[in-house]
Amino acid sequence: MSTTVKKPAVSPHTKRPRPVHHAADFNLDVTSGDDDMFRWFLLTFLLGKPIQSTVAVRTWQLFIDRKLDLPWTIIRMSDRELVQLLRTGGYTRYQHVMTHALKTCMQQLISQYDGSLQLMVEDSADEDELSKRLQTLYGVGPKTAEIFMRETQELFARRAE
Predict the structure, then answer these.
(1) What is the CATH number of the domain that holds 52?
(2) In a domain, 54, yes or no
(3) Are 43 and 26 in contact (CB under 8 A)?
(4) How far is CA 147 from the centre of its chain?
(5) How confident is the model over 15-71, as pLDDT tens digits?
(6) How far apart are CA 81 and CA 87, in angstroms?
(7) Residues 6+ apart with CB under 8 A from 72
(8) What is the reported pTM?
(9) Which residues form the domain of 55?
(10) Could you give the number of structural domains in the chain?
(11) Mapped to the 3 state alphabet, what secondary structure does 88-105 carry?
């Protein structure tokens, strides 16, 4: 008598693991200064939200292609322009919420750190403090901070040397 082993059914509701992104995948060197660090932050801000990573990456690329890759360029956009950019990137819902979140976060970054994530890193005694500082920015939660900080570990390691 033979027995057959049934394979467990894959539920259509089973979530696939999200891909792990690194700054180097996008030709960014976070240790080189504020420009790449901000571009990485913008990408992690988008990736940290409940949306497909392909949509987040595509939207981020629109920001880069249109030279909207500084906090000041983002807050200077009208809400309508930002909503349209998000739609073009593939946001079919929540683009108004994301517009508010992006603008509020950028304004805080400018007012608290002169728009410089490098300054935020330098002002942080350690990685825990950096994580806490990041999470004080509107729309930045633990996941976004975690993704961003994958690339800042080297900066803190250099301090220890």
Answers:
(1) 1.10.340.30
(2) yes
(3) yes
(4) 7
(5) 555 567 889 899 999 989 899 999 999 999 999 988 899 999 999 999 999 999 999
(6) 10
(7) 106, 110, 115
(8) 0.86
(9) 30-160
(10) 1
(11) HHCCCCCHHHHHHHHHHH
